[in-house]
Amino acid sequence: MKILGMLGLLAALSLGAAQPAAAQPGQLGDARSARDAAPIDLTGQWVSIVTEDWRFRMMTPPKGDYPGVSMTPAARAIADAWDPARDEAEGNACKAYGVAAIMRVPGRIRISWDDPSTLEIETDAGRQTRLFHFGDVPEQRGEPTWQGVSRAEWIPHAGGRGQPPVNGTLEAVTAGMKQGYLRKNGVPYGSRAVVTEYFDLLHQPDGSEWLVVKTIVEDPEYLTAPYITTSNFRKEENGGGWDPRPCVAG
Q1: Which H or E element spans position 173?
Q2: pTM of the model
Q3: Which of 63, 123, 158, 166 sits at 20 to 30 Å (Cα–Cα) from 188?
Q4: Cα 158–Cα 163–Cα 169 angle in degrees, nearest 5
Protein backbone atom coordinates (compact mmCIF):
# COMPACT_ATOMS: atom_id res chain seq x y z
CA MET A 1 0.00 0.00 0.00
CA LYS A 2 2.44 2.67 1.16
CA ILE A 3 5.75 0.80 1.03
CA LEU A 4 6.93 2.44 -2.18
CA GLY A 5 5.64 5.81 -1.13
CA MET A 6 7.61 5.56 2.08
CA LEU A 7 10.94 5.37 0.25
CA GLY A 8 10.84 9.15 0.14
CA LEU A 9 10.31 9.31 3.90
CA LEU A 10 13.19 6.92 4.51
CA ALA A 11 15.42 9.16 2.40
CA ALA A 12 14.23 12.19 4.34
CA LEU A 13 14.98 10.48 7.63
CA SER A 14 18.55 9.76 6.56
CA LEU A 15 19.16 13.19 5.08
CA GLY A 16 17.18 15.26 7.55
CA ALA A 17 15.15 16.69 4.68
CA ALA A 18 12.53 19.35 5.35
CA GLN A 19 9.33 20.05 3.48
CA PRO A 20 8.51 23.45 2.03
CA ALA A 21 6.66 25.65 4.50
CA ALA A 22 3.46 25.52 2.45
CA ALA A 23 3.31 21.72 2.81
CA GLN A 24 4.17 21.40 6.50
CA PRO A 25 1.92 18.72 8.06
CA GLY A 26 -0.12 19.99 10.97
CA GLN A 27 -0.26 23.58 9.79
CA LEU A 28 -3.72 23.27 8.21
CA GLY A 29 -2.87 25.93 5.66
CA ASP A 30 -1.84 28.66 8.11
CA ALA A 31 1.05 29.67 10.35
CA ARG A 32 -0.24 28.10 13.54
CA SER A 33 1.78 25.42 15.26
CA ALA A 34 0.58 21.82 15.14
CA ARG A 35 -0.47 22.13 18.78
CA ASP A 36 -2.54 25.24 18.17
CA ALA A 37 -4.02 23.84 14.95
CA ALA A 38 -5.02 20.50 16.48
CA PRO A 39 -8.67 19.68 15.60
CA ILE A 40 -8.82 17.17 18.49
CA ASP A 41 -7.19 17.01 21.91
CA LEU A 42 -5.36 13.74 22.45
CA THR A 43 -3.56 14.82 25.61
CA GLY A 44 -4.10 13.07 28.92
CA GLN A 45 -3.85 9.58 30.34
CA TRP A 46 -5.55 6.65 28.64
CA VAL A 47 -5.97 3.01 29.65
CA SER A 48 -6.19 0.21 27.09
CA ILE A 49 -9.44 -1.74 26.92
CA VAL A 50 -8.83 -5.15 25.36
CA THR A 51 -11.79 -5.94 23.11
CA GLU A 52 -10.11 -8.26 20.61
CA ASP A 53 -7.21 -10.74 20.36
CA TRP A 54 -7.43 -11.40 24.09
CA ARG A 55 -5.28 -14.55 23.98
CA PHE A 56 -2.54 -12.79 22.03
CA ARG A 57 -2.50 -9.62 24.16
CA MET A 58 -3.34 -10.61 27.73
CA MET A 59 -0.98 -13.58 27.77
CA THR A 60 1.99 -14.81 25.78
CA PRO A 61 0.80 -17.32 23.17
CA PRO A 62 2.86 -20.47 22.67
CA LYS A 63 5.48 -20.79 19.98
CA GLY A 64 3.91 -21.44 16.58
CA ASP A 65 0.53 -19.90 17.49
CA TYR A 66 0.28 -17.10 14.93
CA PRO A 67 -3.05 -17.21 13.04
CA GLY A 68 -4.24 -13.99 11.46
CA VAL A 69 -0.80 -12.83 10.33
CA SER A 70 0.14 -13.23 6.65
CA MET A 71 3.77 -14.27 7.08
CA THR A 72 6.52 -14.99 4.59
CA PRO A 73 8.55 -18.20 4.93
CA ALA A 74 11.38 -16.15 6.44
CA ALA A 75 9.01 -14.80 9.09
CA ARG A 76 7.76 -18.27 9.95
CA ALA A 77 11.32 -19.48 10.40
CA ILE A 78 12.02 -16.67 12.87
CA ALA A 79 8.76 -17.22 14.76
CA ASP A 80 9.35 -20.97 14.97
CA ALA A 81 12.80 -20.34 16.44
CA TRP A 82 11.54 -17.85 19.05
CA ASP A 83 13.45 -18.09 22.33
CA PRO A 84 12.55 -15.49 25.00
CA ALA A 85 15.51 -16.46 27.18
CA ARG A 86 17.85 -15.71 24.30
CA ASP A 87 16.14 -12.34 23.70
CA GLU A 88 16.66 -11.44 27.37
CA ALA A 89 20.30 -12.51 27.27
CA GLU A 90 20.94 -10.47 24.11
CA GLY A 91 19.34 -7.33 25.51
CA ASN A 92 16.31 -7.62 23.23
CA ALA A 93 13.53 -7.94 25.81
CA CYS A 94 11.78 -4.95 24.19
CA LYS A 95 11.26 -6.63 20.82
CA ALA A 96 7.51 -6.94 21.48
CA TYR A 97 7.31 -3.28 22.63
CA GLY A 98 8.41 -1.66 19.37
CA VAL A 99 6.39 0.73 17.25
CA ALA A 100 4.42 -1.94 15.37
CA ALA A 101 3.15 -3.59 18.57
CA ILE A 102 3.34 -1.16 21.49
CA MET A 103 -0.24 0.13 21.16
CA ARG A 104 -1.44 -3.47 21.53
CA VAL A 105 0.38 -4.05 24.82
CA PRO A 106 -2.13 -3.73 27.70
CA GLY A 107 -1.42 -0.80 29.98
CA ARG A 108 -1.66 2.96 30.12
CA ILE A 109 -0.37 5.68 27.84
CA ARG A 110 0.20 9.38 28.47
CA ILE A 111 -0.03 11.87 25.62
CA SER A 112 1.39 15.39 25.87
CA TRP A 113 3.08 18.04 23.76
CA ASP A 114 6.87 17.89 23.97
CA ASP A 115 6.97 21.18 22.06
CA PRO A 116 4.50 22.99 19.74
CA SER A 117 5.34 20.68 16.82
CA THR A 118 6.06 17.39 18.60
CA LEU A 119 3.49 15.14 20.25
CA GLU A 120 4.81 12.67 22.83
CA ILE A 121 3.34 9.31 23.84
CA GLU A 122 4.68 7.54 26.93
CA THR A 123 3.75 3.96 27.78
CA ASP A 124 3.95 2.42 31.20
CA ALA A 125 4.34 -0.99 29.54
CA GLY A 126 8.00 -1.28 28.63
CA ARG A 127 8.66 2.38 29.53
CA GLN A 128 8.62 3.41 25.89
CA THR A 129 8.51 6.98 24.52
CA ARG A 130 7.24 7.88 21.09
CA LEU A 131 7.65 11.29 19.40
CA PHE A 132 5.37 12.39 16.56
CA HIS A 133 6.98 15.16 14.49
CA PHE A 134 4.78 17.58 12.58
CA GLY A 135 6.60 19.29 9.72
CA ASP A 136 10.35 18.81 9.64
CA VAL A 137 11.47 15.29 10.51
CA PRO A 138 14.72 15.30 12.49
CA GLU A 139 17.75 13.56 11.10
CA GLN A 140 18.04 10.00 12.33
CA ARG A 141 21.30 9.67 14.23
CA GLY A 142 22.97 6.53 15.45
CA GLU A 143 21.37 3.11 15.48
CA PRO A 144 17.65 2.60 14.80
CA THR A 145 15.43 2.56 17.89
CA TRP A 146 12.42 0.47 18.87
CA GLN A 147 10.07 3.37 18.09
CA GLY A 148 11.69 4.58 14.86
CA VAL A 149 11.04 8.07 13.51
CA SER A 150 7.44 9.26 13.07
CA ARG A 151 6.02 11.98 10.87
CA ALA A 152 2.56 13.20 11.89
CA GLU A 153 -0.18 15.19 10.19
CA TRP A 154 -3.64 16.37 11.16
CA ILE A 155 -6.50 15.34 8.88
CA PRO A 156 -9.36 17.75 9.65
CA HIS A 157 -12.99 16.68 9.26
CA ALA A 158 -15.98 18.80 8.28
CA GLY A 159 -15.59 22.56 8.36
CA GLY A 160 -14.78 23.70 4.84
CA ARG A 161 -15.57 26.97 3.07
CA GLY A 162 -13.24 28.81 5.42
CA GLN A 163 -14.83 27.32 8.54
CA PRO A 164 -12.64 25.72 11.23
CA PRO A 165 -12.66 21.91 11.48
CA VAL A 166 -15.02 20.38 14.03
CA ASN A 167 -13.15 17.11 14.34
CA GLY A 168 -10.19 15.33 12.86
CA THR A 169 -7.77 12.44 12.77
CA LEU A 170 -4.09 12.22 13.58
CA GLU A 171 -2.12 10.29 10.97
CA ALA A 172 1.36 9.10 11.92
CA VAL A 173 3.77 7.28 9.60
CA THR A 174 6.83 5.61 11.13
CA ALA A 175 9.93 4.11 9.54
CA GLY A 176 13.57 3.51 10.44
CA MET A 177 12.89 1.24 13.42
CA LYS A 178 14.69 -1.78 14.82
CA GLN A 179 13.38 -5.23 13.96
CA GLY A 180 10.78 -6.33 16.48
CA TYR A 181 7.82 -8.59 17.13
CA LEU A 182 4.21 -8.07 16.09
CA ARG A 183 3.22 -10.55 18.77
CA LYS A 184 5.12 -11.53 21.86
CA ASN A 185 5.73 -15.10 20.66
CA GLY A 186 8.26 -14.06 18.05
CA VAL A 187 6.15 -13.07 15.01
CA PRO A 188 8.57 -10.60 13.39
CA TYR A 189 8.49 -7.32 11.54
CA GLY A 190 11.64 -5.98 9.94
CA SER A 191 13.62 -2.76 9.87
CA ARG A 192 12.21 -1.93 6.43
CA ALA A 193 8.62 -2.03 7.66
CA VAL A 194 6.38 1.03 7.51
CA VAL A 195 3.79 1.60 10.25
CA THR A 196 0.85 3.90 9.53
CA GLU A 197 -1.49 4.83 12.38
CA TYR A 198 -4.75 6.76 12.63
CA PHE A 199 -5.82 8.23 15.99
CA ASP A 200 -9.51 9.13 16.43
CA LEU A 201 -11.58 10.33 19.40
CA LEU A 202 -15.06 9.12 20.25
CA HIS A 203 -17.36 10.82 22.78
CA GLN A 204 -19.96 8.52 24.32
CA PRO A 205 -23.39 9.50 25.72
CA ASP A 206 -22.24 8.54 29.23
CA GLY A 207 -19.57 11.24 29.04
CA SER A 208 -16.64 8.87 28.53
CA GLU A 209 -14.00 9.67 25.95
CA TRP A 210 -12.35 6.97 23.86
CA LEU A 211 -9.23 6.88 21.73
CA VAL A 212 -9.27 4.47 18.79
CA VAL A 213 -5.93 3.67 17.13
CA LYS A 214 -5.89 1.90 13.78
CA THR A 215 -2.45 0.46 12.97
CA ILE A 216 -1.35 -0.75 9.53
CA VAL A 217 1.99 -2.57 9.31
CA GLU A 218 3.47 -3.10 5.84
CA ASP A 219 6.63 -5.13 5.58
CA PRO A 220 8.12 -6.40 2.29
CA GLU A 221 10.41 -8.80 4.14
CA TYR A 222 8.14 -10.59 6.62
CA LEU A 223 4.52 -9.92 5.60
CA THR A 224 2.67 -10.94 2.45
CA ALA A 225 -0.22 -8.58 3.25
CA PRO A 226 -0.69 -5.57 5.54
CA TYR A 227 -1.23 -6.42 9.20
CA ILE A 228 -4.12 -4.27 10.46
CA THR A 229 -5.31 -3.91 14.04
CA THR A 230 -7.53 -1.54 16.02
CA SER A 231 -6.78 -0.73 19.67
CA ASN A 232 -9.14 1.03 22.09
CA PHE A 233 -8.29 3.29 25.03
CA ARG A 234 -10.56 5.02 27.57
CA LYS A 235 -9.53 8.39 28.99
CA GLU A 236 -8.87 8.57 32.71
CA GLU A 237 -9.65 11.60 34.83
CA ASN A 238 -6.38 11.53 36.76
CA GLY A 239 -2.95 9.95 36.72
CA GLY A 240 -3.81 7.11 39.06
CA GLY A 241 -2.80 3.61 38.11
CA TRP A 242 0.31 4.70 36.22
CA ASP A 243 2.69 1.76 36.61
CA PRO A 244 5.95 2.03 34.58
CA ARG A 245 7.51 -1.39 34.19
CA PRO A 246 10.38 -2.72 32.09
CA CYS A 247 10.11 -4.83 28.96
CA VAL A 248 9.76 -8.55 29.56
CA ALA A 249 10.52 -11.18 26.93
CA GLY A 250 8.05 -14.03 26.97
Answers
A1: strand 167-175
A2: 0.86
A3: 123
A4: 35
